[in-house]
Write a structure and sequence with these properties.
It is built from 21 helices and 21 strands. It has 697 residues and is an alpha+beta fold. Strand 11 and strand 12 form a beta hairpin. Helix 5 runs antiparallel to helix 7. The longest helix has 25 residues. The N terminus is likely disordered.
Length: 697
C-alpha cells in the first residue's frame, strides 16, 4: 500500500480574488540535493523496475497530471487558466529532471500556496454574511472529474456553496450562528496558517510521489521523515517519550500516553497537556514550538535511547496565561502495542452447543529487521507474536481460530510465509517472478503446524500484499475458509533502495526509493495481482472498488498465470463449504443487525453515486430525522451502533474528551461482520467434530 503526502487540497476550494489583502505565502525553492535525488531516482527506475518505464515525454505528461491532481483532487483550487499555463510544460519534466532542474513543480506549488491563502481569506469574508437555507440548491461533493472553474466568478460560486455546506452541517448539529461563525473562522484561519508552513521538502515529496506512482502504483519515494515513519511501522517501536500527539489550535497536545512509556511512568503528564517548548539534554535551551508543525515537534522529541528531553508544559484546561512547568524525561524504546497482533475469544451458540472462537487481529505483517540482523533472539515480528497467541488460545481450549486481516496493508514477505507455516507446517506458500522471468518458490519450513483445528481468514478491500499471500495460501491448501470482500489486488514485490548508498554518499541527503522488482503468484499458478483473493463466503463491504483497490489504478499490472507449484491440498473446506454457505445464508436472513448493515451499505452506495448533497435545510432535516429513527431503533434493539450524530466538526474542533469519547464509541460498536464470521467458524468446528465422530464410528 503506498504512503502518500497529504495536502490541504483534499478539502479546500481555492481561487484568486483580486481583493485579497493577506500576505502571500513564502516562495519555495528546490535545494541542490533534491534535484540530485530526482536524477538518481530516474536512473534507477528506468533500469531496474520490474517493468521499466522510460523517462520520456509520455511519462512526463503523466507526472504532470498526477502532481496537479495531488494538489487539487476536487478541481477547485486552480482556475482553468492556471492549468493551461502549467500544461505548457507538460512534456518538459523529463528533460528538467535530467538536467537537475525542479523549477516546474516548484512554480506550480507556489501558485497552489497563493490560492490557498487567497481563498481562505475569501472564505472568512463569506462568514460575515448569512445564508438562505430555504433555497433549492445542491453542492457537488464529487468533483474529481469536473472541469476547473473558468472564471473568478465561477470559483466564487463554487466556494460559496462549500462554505454554505459547512455552515449547514454545523447548524444541523445544533450550533448557533455565533458558534458556527467562530468555528468556521478558526477552521479557515488554521488552513491559511498551514499554507505559510509549507516547506521545500513538502513540494519535493509530493512531486516525487507523482513521479514514482506514474511508473507503478506501489513505487514510492521516501524523504527522511517518510523513511523514518516506514521503519517505525515495520518494527513497531521507536525511541521517544511514549505519547500520541495531536495539533489543536496551534498547540501540540497530548492525546494519549502509551502504557509503560516514559511520559506515563513519570506521572507528570496528562492527556490534554500542551507542549509549548522542547529542550535537548539536561540544560539545553528550550525552543518554543507553539504554532510549529506537528511533524517538526515530533522530530524534536524523538532521539537516542537514554538521552534527556525537556518539555515546557501548559497544563490541560489551563488558560494561556497560566503558569507553565518543565518536565524532564529520559527517552526509551517504545513498543507500539496497538499495531501488534491481539487476541480475543468469542462464544458462539451452535444448536445446543457453545463454541469458542479464538480471534487474532493482525493490523500489519511487521518485523524488526534491525534487531533480527543484530542476532536478537527476542526480536519482534508478526508470526512470533501470533504463535504466542495461538499457544494461549490452545490453553483456553478454543474450537477454531479466525485471523482478522481487515485493512492489513501488508508488510514483510517473510512474515507472511512464516504465518502460513503456523497452519500448514511445511510447503510452498508463494511464487515470485522477477523482471528476468525467473520464478522462485518461497516455502514455509515448520516441523509441524502450531494450530491444526478449523481456521478462517477475514479479509476486506483493505487487505493487501502480504495479507493476500497468506489468505491465498490458506485457500489453495484448503486449510481454512476465507470470508469477506475481494481483497485489494496488490500482487507485486517491492524493495527499498537507499539513494545515498547508490551515490556513495556518506551523509543522508537523497532519501530512499521503494521499487517494484517482482510479481507474486499463488501456488495454484494464478496471481493475486488486480483480482485479489476471492472469498469462499462473501460479506458486504463499504469500500468503492472504483476508487480503492488495484483496479482503481490506470497503470496497474494485468492479471497473469504461471505453472502451479507442487503442493498437496486438503479437501476439508471444499467438503463443508456448501453447508457453511447454507447456514450463513439462513442466519443473515433472520439477523436484524446484518440486514440493517445491508441497508446502510445500500444507502451509502446511493449517496456516493448521487455525488451531490442538498443545501436546503428542510430537506436535510428530513434526511437527518430518517437517520435518527434508524439509530433509535438500533439502540432499542441493543446493537450499540449509535456512535453519535454528525456534529459537523472536524476531530481537532471538538473538545479532546468529546473526541476521545466518540472514537471509543466507534471502537466499541458492534462488529456485525466479525460476529457473523465467528459464527461461520463455529459452524466449521461443529461440522469437523461431526466428521470426526462419524469416522470414529
Amino acid at each position: 500500500m503506498r504512503i502518500s503526502y497529504v495536502f490541504l487540497g483534499a478539502f479546500l476550494a481555492v481561487v484568486q480574488p483580486a481583493y485579497a489583502d493577506v500576505a502571500s505565502p513564502p516562495v519555495l525553492e528546490p535545494v541542490k540535493q533534491q534535484a540530485k535525488a530526482a536524477q538518481l531516482s530516474a536512473k534507477f527506475l528506468t533500469r531496474f523496475s520490474y517493468k521499466p518505464v522510460p523517462l520520456d515525454d509520455s511519462l512526463s505528461a503523466r507526472i504532470m497530471d498526477r502532481f496537479i491532481e495531488s494538489l487539487d483532487p476536487d478541481r477547485a483550487l486552480f482556475l482553468q487558466a492556471d492549468v493551461d499555463s502549467f500544461m505548457a510544460d507538460r512534456s518538459e519534466i523529463d528533460d528538467a529532471i535530467e538536467r537537475k532542474d525542479l523549477k516546474i513543480p516548484f512554480d506550480i506549488f507556489n501558485v497552489y500556496g497563493k490560492r490557498v491563502v487567497d481563498r481562505m481569506d475569501y472564505a472568512r469574508q463569506l462568514l460575515k454574511q448569512g445564508f438562505d437555507f430555504r433555497q433549492q440548491e445542491n453542492y457537488a461533493v464529487l468533483r474529481d472529474k469536473a472541469p476547473w472553474p473558468q472564471s473568478e466568478a465561477e470559483s466564487n460560486e463554487l466556494w460559496r456553496k462549500r462554505v454554505k455546506s459547512d455552515w449547514l452541517r454545523l447548524k444541523l448539529g445544533g450550533k448557533s450562528d455565533a458558534a458556527i461563525r467562530e468555528t468556521l473562522d478558526k477552521r479557515y484561519a488554521n488552513a491559511l496558517e498551514r499554507a505559510y508552513k509549507f516547506k521545500s521538502d513538502d513540494v519535493f515529496q509530493s512531486f516525487m510521489n507523482a513521479y514514482t506512482t506514474s511508473v507503478d502504483p506501489h513505487t514510492d519515494y521516501f524523504g527522511a521523515n517518510a523513511s523514518a515513519a516506514f521503519d517505525i511501522a515495520m518494527k513497531l517501536s521507536l525511541v521517544g517519550i511514549g505519547a500520541v500527539l495531536q495539533e489543536r489550535d496551534d498547540y501540540t497536545t497530548i492525546r494519549e500516553l502509551v502504557p509503560g512509556g516514559p511520559a506515563q511512568l513519570s506521572g507528570k503528564l496528562a492527556v490534554g497537556d500542551r507542549i509549548t517548548g522542547v529542550g535537548q539534554g539536561k540544560d539545553g535551551a528550550i525552543k518554543e514550538v507553539v504554532g510549529t508543525r506537528l511533524d517538526e515537534v515530533v522530530q524534536l522529541i524523538r532521539g537516542k535511547k537514554g538521552s534527556v528531553v525537556r518539555l515546557d508544559i501548559l497544563p490541560a484546561d489551563a488558560g494561556t496565561d497560566a503558569p507553565h512547568r518543565v518536565v524532564s524525561l529520559v527517552r526509551d524504546k517504545i513498543s507500539l502495542e496497538k499495531q501488534a497482533a491481539q487476541k480475543a475469544v468469542l462464544s458462539v451458540k451452535v444448536g445446543d452447543a457453545t463454541r469458542k472462537v479464538g480471534v487474532i487481529t493482525l493490523p500489519a505483517f511487521y518485523e524488526d529487521f534491525e534487531a533480527r540482523r543484530k542476532g536478537d533472539k527476542d526480536y519482534r515480528s508478526a508470526s512470533r507474536d501470533v504463535r504466542k497467541l495461538l499457544d494461549e488460545l490452545k490453553q483456553e481450549k478454543v474450537d477454531s481460530v479466525l485471523i482478522d486481516l481487515r485493512n492489513n496493508g501488508g508488510g514483510s514477505l517473510e512474515e507472511a510465509i512464516n504465518l502460513t507455516g503456523l497452519f500448514i507446517g511445511t510447503g510452498p506458500v508463494v511464487q515470485q517472478r522477477d523482471s528476468d522471468g525467473k520464478v522462485a518458490i518461497r516455502s514455509a519450513d515448520f516441523p509441524a503446524p502450531v494450530w491444526t483445528g478449523p481456521v478462517g481468514v477475514l479479509i476486506n478491500r483493505g487487505s493487501a500484499s502480504a495479507s493476500e499471500i497468506f489468505a491465498a495460501a490458506i485457500q489453495d491448501y484448503g486449510r481454512g475458509v476465507i470470508v469477506g470482500e475481494p481483497s485489494f489486488g496488490k500482487g507485486t514485490v517491492q524493495t527499498v533502495v537507499n539513494l545515498d548508498d547508490m551515490a556513495r554518499n556518506n551523509k543522508p541527503e537523497f532519501g530512499e526509493l521503494k521499487v517494484t522488482i517482482a510479481q507474486f503468484f499463488r501456488i495454484n499458478g494464478g496471481t493475486t495481482q488486480l483480482r485479489g483473493v476471492t472469498p469462499d463466503i462473501s460479506l458486504p463491504g463499504l469500500s468503492d472498488p472504483t476508487t480503492f483497490g488495484e483496479t482503481s489504478y490506470d497503470n496497474a499490472l494485468p492479471w497473469a498465470q504461471i505453472k502451479p507449484a507442487k503442493y498437496q491440498p486438503a479437501d476439508t473446506v471444499t467438503t463443508v463449504l456448501p453447508t457453511l454457505q447454507g447456514r450463513h445464508d439462513a442466519r443473515i436472513e433472520g439477523n436484524p443487525d446484518f440486514q440493517r448493515l445491508l441497508k446502510d451499505i445500500a444507502d451509502l452506495k446511493a449517496q456516493r453515486e448521487k455525488g451531490v448533497i442538498s443545501l436546503n435545510e428542510a430537506e436535510r432535516r428530513r434526511e437527518l430525522a430518517d437517520r435518527e429513527n434508524r439509530l433509535k431503533s438500533r439502540a432499542q434493539a441493543g446493537d450499540g451502533e449509535n456512535t453519535g450524530e454528525d456534529d459537523g466538526l472536524y476531530a481537532n474542533e471538538r473538545s479532546l474528551s468529546a473526541d476521545i469519547a466518540l472514537e471509543n464509541a466507534r471502537k466499541n460498536a458492534k462488529d456485525v461482520l466479525l460476529n457473523e464470521t465467528a459464527a461461520i467458524l463455529a459452524d466449521a468446528a461443529d461440522l469437523q467434530e461431526g466428521v470426526l465422530k462419524a469416522a470414529t464410528k
